[in-house]
Design brief:
Elements (H helix, E strand, L loop, with lengths): L1 H23 L3 H38 L11 E9 L2 E2 L14 E3 L4 E4 L13 H6 L5 E2 L3 E4 L3 E4 L12 E7 L8 E3 L13 E7 L11 H7 L30
Parallel strand pairs: 1-10
Antiparallel strand pairs: 1-2, 1-4, 3-4, 5-6, 6-7, 8-9, 8-10
């Protein structure tokens, strides 16, 4: 019995010693994994928040600054308009008869009022072509200029006293200080209005000097009273009015 008891005591001591050694070892690998997971999780949260802030900032900027969205309903812009035929300006167009329903119109003072009344008149829809289409009897193209109560002018003919074939083109001045302007040809439906610009529709030789419309004075006087939502330095539209006319047509 004594021998048996001693053997069992020795076995118990060995087992206890082995258990103490195991408990004395720290699981550094496990701790390292936990630390790495915590670091990666923190970095992921920081990155996610920064991405959300950047997207929100970009969305806010595109909504408030994009010129393509202007003008909007409630905005009022004005642009000067004149018709320069064979070296002389014609009288201003009479007031639009449909101004109660059409937001892009004229009051008869040589200015175009751009005050959208519906979505069809906002943003990229606010074009010179829209104004022409909605003014009864007015037509402007690369081949014909028709002005109510004045007459019809055909491209390819000549002004009195000139042998040069007349063309129809639009000259756009970005603002009252822009005395040079830019000559365009192309589709007038793509010629988007800009607040404070001046537009001269000319009939004559392509090389002639085209002045600003006489309603420049009215535009300057009206500018302080306008409500603008686009920068004063908005670029002049660069879409041409149409192809260069060729050949002769019917008489004026």
């Amino acid at each position: 019995m004594a021998r048996y008891s001693v053997s069992r005591a020795v076995a118990r001591a060995g087992a206890a010693s082995s258990s103490k050694n195991y408990r004395g070892e720290r699981p550094w690998g496990f701790y390292s994994v936990l630390i790495i997971i915590a670091i990666l999780g923190t970095l992921g949260i920081i990155y996610s928040r920064s991405e959300m802030a950047a997207r929100a900032s970009a969305a806010s900027t595109s909504t408030t600054l994009s010129p393509a969205l202007q003008p909007t309903i409630g905005t009022t812009w004005r642009a000067a308009l004149g018709f320069y035929v064979c070296g002389k300006f014609l009288p201003n167009l009479p007031a639009s008869p449909n101004s109660s329903t059409v937001g892009i119109n004229t009051s008869g003072n040589g200015l175009i009022n751009i005050s959208p009344k519906n979505k069809k008149e906002t943003g990229s829809h606010a074009t010179f072509g829209y104004f022409v289409k909605n003014y009864p009897g007015l037509a402007v193209s690369s081949t014909e200029l028709a002005i109510p109560s004045v007459g019809i002018y055909k491209a390819g003919l000549s002004c009195q006293g000139s042998k040069a074939k007349a063309q129809i083109f639009i000259h756009v001045f970005s603002n009252a200080l822009d005395t040079k302007g830019t000559n365009y040809t192309g589709n007038i439906n793509s010629l988007k209005f800009a607040n404070g610009e001046l537009i001269t529709v000319a009939y004559g030789s392509s090389g002639q000097s085209v002045p600003q419309p006489p309603s420049k004075t009215q535009l300057i006087q009206a500018t302080p009273a306008t409500t603008t939502t686009a920068p004063a330095s908005s670029p002049t539209p660069t879409i041409p009015l149409g192809s260069v006319p060729g050949g002769t047509t019917s008489t004026t």
